[in-house]
Specification:
Protein name: Glutaredoxin family protein
Number of domains: 1
Strand content: 15-25%
Pfam family, one: Glutaredoxin
Organism: Methanofollis fontis
InterPro entries: Glutaredoxin, Glutathione_S-Trfase_N, Thioredoxin-like_sf
Length: about 90
């Protein structure tokens, strides 16, 4: 899986699993950008089919059994959905 990197302040490992068509995923990405946080993201729906299935299965197994988006992992803390207060707290 190739992640896209967004430059910003290093707050540890921040990875966003998102869909390109998901409004809440876009809000999460915009929030991270506005907070000047360095993070990596992947649009799962834009991957090739085999890789998409592999990444989705891994995301569900490791982080979010419900398989919903966005799934944000901040230094091991998993935040499902656009949860602005939780995101800000995890980055503090």
């Amino acid at each position: 899986m190739e992640l896209v990197h967004v430059d910003g302040q290093d707050r540890g490992e921040v990875v966003l699993y998102a869909l390109s068509t998901c409004g809440w995923c876009g809000k999460t990405k915009n929030l991270l950008t506005s907070l000047d946080v360095a993070f990596d993201y992947v649009y799962v729906d834009l991957l090739e089919r085999d890789e998409m299935e592999q990444v989705y299965a891994e995301m569900m197994q490791r982080y979010n059994p419900s398989g919903s988006f966005p799934t944000l992992v901040i230094n091991g803390t998993v935040i499902v959905g656009f949860q602005e207060d939780e995101i800000r707290e995890a980055l503090a």
